[in-house]
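In this supplementary section we document a worked example of the pipeline. Step one takes a protein sequence of length 615 as its only input; no multiple sequence alignment statistics are reported here. Step two produces a three-dimensional model, which step three serialises into C-alpha cells for compact storage. The input and output of this example are shown verbatim.
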Amino acid sequence: MRQKVKDQAQPWLAGWNALTGNGRAQLGAKPRPLATVIRGDVPGQNFAQFYIDVARAYQLALRWKVSQDTRYADLAVVFLNEWSSTLKEVTGNADRFLAAGIYGYEFANAAEIMRTYDGWAPADFARFQTMMLDIFYPLNHSFLTDHNGTNATGITNYWANWDQCTMASMLAIGVLCDRPDIYDEAISYYKAGQGNGAGLQAVYYVHPGYLGQWQESGRDQGHCTLGIGLAGAFCEMAWNQGDDIYGYENNRFLAGAEYVAKSNLPNGNGGFYTVPYITNINRQGTQSVLSTGALGHRRGIWESVHNHYANRLGIATPYTALQAIQMRPEGDGGKGDELGFGTLTFTRDPLPTAGRPSGLTARLRGTQVVLSWWGCTGAQGYSVRRAEQAGGPYSVIASGITDVLTFNDTALSATGVYHYVIVAATAAGDSAPSSEARVSVPPELLLQWKPDGGARTPVSLPTGLAKNAADFTVSVRVFLDSAATWARVFDFGSGTRRYMMLTARNGKGVVRYAISTVHGYNEQVIDGPAALPTGRWVHVAVTLSGTLGTLYVDGIVAGTNAEMTLTPADLGETTQNRLGRSQFPDDPDLQGRVDDFRIYSGALGAAEIAALAGI
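The serialised model returned by step three reads:
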C-alpha cells in the first residue's frame, strides 16, 4: 500500500484519498470510552459511541501504517488505551452478541496493526488483550455454544450474520492474544458448526454454475451483503494465518459472494440480474422467493473477495468484480458494520499470466451429466470437451459458454464412461485444460462393508463416503432384534444440521429414508408402508435417479418420491457416517446386526436391486 500510494498508482491512491478525507481518520479527536456498552432496543443504548471510536482507532492505525507519520500512531494508541482501561461490559438484549462480534473483530484488527508500534507500551497492549479475552470472547463463546440459551432447538432462529460476526471476533482475538485454542474454536465452527453462519449453511444451496444461494437471500439484501463482508473478513484473517477458508468446499464462499453480487447488480434494463432460488426454511419461517427488500444494496466489502480470487489465484469473479468496480474506492464502514477502505487495503496487481478453469464437477442426474466449473481471469468464453478414456483425446461438445458456467450433457450412452475437461478461450489462445472429471453412467460401487455374518451396531464408516454423488444407491442387509422408534439403519452427515438416514421405524410406525440440509426443516422423505420386520434378515435399498427416489424392502418397491432434489453431494464433507446410530443424541441405537452395506454412484435398476435382495 505504501509503495503504491507513493507511486500515485490507481486505484490505491483513490483508496488512500478516501481514508485521509474521512472525518474519523483525523488528528485532534478525543476518545469517549464507556464502562458499559449497550446494544439493543433497551434503555440507555449507546453502542454508536463505541463503534465510532473503534473506527477511529482502525483508521488512525491504517493511516500510520501507510504514511509512517507517528502522530496517527500515537493517537490510535490513546483510543486503544482509553477503552481498555475503561470498558467493563458489553450488554443489552440479544444484540449484545452482535456488538461483541462485529466491534470485537474490528477492535482486534486495529490493535493487531498497532502491536508493532514501539510507542505502545507492552503493559498497555497486555491490558488490551485482557479486555478482549475477558469482555468480548466470553460473549462470542457463549453465543456459538448455546445461541442465547436456545441450544439446538432454536439454533436456526439466528440468521447467518450472527454466527459470522461471532466467528470473526473469535478468530481475531485468537490471533491478537496468541491463543491458538480460540482461533481453532472459530475455524472448527466454520467447518462443523450447526448454526446458520457456518460455511455450509451460510451458502445455503449451490446451484449449477456455482451460484451459491445465501442463507439470508429470502430475508433482505442488506443482511446478505453484511454477511459477505463478515465472511470475507474471516476468510482473509484465516488466510493470513495459513488457513485457506476461501477455498473450503470448492470455493463455497465465492459461490455465495457471486450469488449476492449478481442478485444486487443493475442489469442495464431498469431491473436487476435474476438468480435461481430454492425455498429456504428455518425457525423464522419459509422464504420461498428472493427478497426484494433493499434490492441493489451497496456495501463496500467486495474488494477483498475479488482480489483474493481473481488477483491472488486467477479465478474469475465476474459479478463480485462488477460490485467492486461500482463501489470503488471503498469508503468507511458507515454505521460500524465493516472496517472499510478495501480498495486501499486489498487491491492487488493482476497475475502476469493467464490461468485455467478449475473446480470442475460432473454429476449424473437421471439422463444427463451436470457440469459446473470456476472460470479464469482473462477468459472470453469456455468450451466443454469430452473423451471416453482418461487423458483424451477429447472432442468439443459445447463452446462459447460465458455465463453461467454450467453445461448439461444429454448425449449419453447407457454404458458410457465419460471424461470431461474445460478449456478457456483467451486473447492469447486456448488455455490449458482444467483438471479432468469422470462420470460413469452405469452405477459403480463406491464402498462395500461386509463383515462375516454381520456385525452388531453401532459401526462407524469413513468420512465423505459419497461426497460427489448425485444419483446414488444404498444397499444393506439388517437383522433387527426389535424396531425401536427412530433407531437408524444408517445415518450419514455432520451433526443434526445435515444428514441422510434410514430409520427402521419412524414416529408413524413405518420405515423412512430422509435427507435434509437444515436441521430437518427442508427434509425430503420416502416412507414405506410398515416398519422393517424383526427376527430375520431384511434387505433394504434406496436409489435416486434425477429427482425420483425409490425405497425397496426385500427387493420390492416400498415407496417413492418424485420430487427429491437433495443429493449426497449437497451434504458436503460428511464427518459422521454411522450404521446403527443416529446423529440425534436422543434417538435409540439400533438393536440388531447389519451386513453387506454398499454405496454406489448411480441408481441401480429394479432387477439389480432384486438380485442383491436374492430374489
